[in-house]
Amino acid sequence: MATDPMMQRFGDLFAATQPLAQRFTDAGYELYAVGGCVRDALLQVTSKHTDFDLTTNARPDEIEAIVKPWASATWDQGRRFGTIGCNRDGNDFEITTFRADAYEPDSRKPIVTFGDSIREDLSRRDFTINALAIKLGGVPEFIDAFGGLTDLMAKRLKTPLDPAISFEDDPLRMLRAARFLARFDLTPDPELVAAIGRDHERLKIVSAERIRDELDKLLEVPVCAPGLTFLVEHHLADHFLPELPGLSLEQDPLHHHKDVFTHTLAVVDKTTPERILRLAALFHDVGKPKTRNFVDGGVTFHHHEVVGARMTKVRMEALKYSGDDVATVVRLVELHLRFHTYKMGWSDKAVRRYVRDAGEHLERLNELTRCDCTTRNAAKAKQLSKRMDELEDRIRVLSAQEDLKAQRPDLDGEEVMAQLGVGPSRVIGEALEFLLDLRLDEGPLGKEEAARRLDAWWKERGGAEAPPPSSR
């Protein structure tokens, strides 16, 4: 039994789970809180989520029978893995039968078998810091069969069993190690590192979707650079993100400026830990190795944003990201250098075009641009920040005068056809492009002035003179 002061850390967990635990106890089954909710309570980490991982000796059908009359909602997508989910009073509970599963050597899916003891279940967990449990219902009991609490306090990452067994059970755990190292500032156990060195090739059997989801979780850790470094140093990134180790080249070997990989890590950690923005930061310079050129004792990366955008699309599609995610990140990578021409002076048209091209991702683009400045030259950094402040001020001023988020021609396609007396054709698209350029140059013109300008444009092109408004 754990000491009372430590057990007091589980007060919120006990309060949320007590009614459910009583139902399992009344039915003659054991119920335990396990994994992250126990670990975070020990660390007194406040989670933004209200979800709890629970484990029991009840089988899935029995779990469902117990929770269904009590829960406001249930789901069973994980039934084949022994998991039944439910919700009550704003809390989500994932309840899983004790597990004793393992992966076949060349299979992407586990062989699911159920166990009969909490110790056996904990032995199949990924790391000792997650192999912690609290028995719920009746007298609470803290279960730590593999020294997870000691490892947590010592900031050490270990597996409950031999790491070779753990990684054979699920190779994704090698990738997950990077996230926990970064999130909790842990040091990997030497045996864990050695096992990854031997077995990292097994990551190839893990589905792209699972790898993508784990990468996203790593990128949402506030300081994720240690995790990304771990992926590169131990050849894990080679199997799903080879562009990342490819960034380890010196930008300027003559002056020994920091390599692109180090710069990328700095940019990622400077950005808000939001998935899409972090992905854009991760990919923003992937085009540099392919565009590097040495000129007059220096180095250039001309058009690396264009090359990088294409590379980003290919890699994100391989990782099965959604079309919207791919389009957004590709656009941010493509635009991340646009701001740097601002030092040459931008017209209002250029500002409007910048806002239009960024679209709904303007704030992300501006943050990425700011974070891309990792220079140690304080004067240069201050100058770049000042220019971005000036640009954002100009955007605010223009936004107060007009709706920059709806930058469209003053006339739509139907109105253009009526104005010119022309049916659907290529010339309508050219006319709309002409009107959009006017909109970007001068701001909103109004329909009457836009029609007058369109008539003049049409006449210059040799088109038939449009009839006067009164005869339409």
Task: Outline the structure in words.
The protein has helices at 4-7, 11-26, 36-42, 60-67, 118-123, 148-153, 163-169, 172-184, 190-199, 208-219, 225-233, 260-270, 275-283, 288-291, 304-318, 323-335, 348-358, 362-371, 378-401, 413-420, 426-442, 447-460, and strands at residues 31-34, 51-56, 73-75, 83-88, 91-97, 102-103, 110-111, 133-136, 141-143, 156-157, 187-188, 293-295, 298-300. The protein is of the alpha+beta class. The N and C termini lie far apart (89 Å). The relative contact order is 0.05. Residues 252-257 and 465-472 have low confidence and may be disordered.
**Structure summary, number of beta strands:** 13
Gyration radius (Cα, Å) is 29 Å
Tell me the structural class. alpha+beta
Percent helix range:
40-55%
On the 0-100 scale, what is the average pLDDT? 86
Poorly predicted tracts of residues? 252-257, 465-472
Count of separate DSSP helical elements: 22
CATH second-level architecture of the largest domain: 2-Layer Sandwich
- Number of spatially distinct domains: 3
Order of strands in the sheet with most strands: 3-4-5-2-1-8-9
Largest sheet: 7 strands, mixed
Top-tier CATH class of the largest domain = Alpha Beta
Overall outline: elongated
What name is given to the CATH topology of the largest domain? Beta Polymerase, domain 2
The percentage of residues in β strands lies in: 5-15%
Q: First CA to last CA: what distance?
A: 89 Å
CATH superfamily of the largest domain: Beta Polymerase, domain 2
Q: Multimeric state of these chains?
A: single chain
